[in-house]
Fold:
Amino acid sequence: KQEVTQIPAALSVPEGENLVLNCSFTDSAIYNLQWFRQDPGKGLTSLLLIQSSQREQTSGRLNASLDKSSGRSTLYIAASQPGDSATYLCAVSKLSGGGADGLTFGKGTHLIIQP
Amino acid sequence: NAGVMQNPRHLVRRRGQEARLRCSPMKGHSHVYWYRQLPEEGLKFMVYLQKENIIDESGMPKERFSAEFPKEGPSILRIQQVVRGDSAAYFCASSPDYPPDHEQFFGPGTRLTVL
Structure:
């Protein structure tokens, strides 16, 4: 059974710092990995998707890496801003049937960027 | 292209009543996933459907819960005889057939409160 762990559970840093969020998963037979952000009381916004054959993806100030063999992914946020404050979720899927399986989520990292 | 739509956004039911949650996937998406987020817990996969077919319902409680995705109209998650433990946020996600990276896009969720 796939398990996803995110470290740290919570993080508070001053504005402008670069930071790294960590995600690990127990079963390396994944199809893809997605990073999301969730604002309080809201839905999930997809940030980055990495296919199992890829090593990293970049979008603006965000960079996600994937080491499938060791079961690890990191989300790097450069030059953090107060608007980045949210809960960041890591999720993995495996291929099944005609599409990707349901995602298995970590419990998230609650990030606060201090102005 | 409108995002994934869910309604109602908030639903209050008394114990023993039925709850019907609706999800309209993004245009062109034929894969629908339902997830549940219990208070203080992570997101858990419930069921994966393609048009008129249930692909994987391994996360669905065995009793009282059912899901469908008819040829026409939205996907429906139905909870019969609700209990207080069903109070949670229910999220729907959809993904397209192409590109085949199966990125999942989430709706805003339905927050169910059982009195």
In short: Residues 52 and 70 of chain B are 5 Å apart (CA to CA). Chain B touches chain A at residues 31, 33, 35, 41-48, 50, 55-56, 58-59, 91, 93, 95, 97, 101-109 (CB under 8 Å).
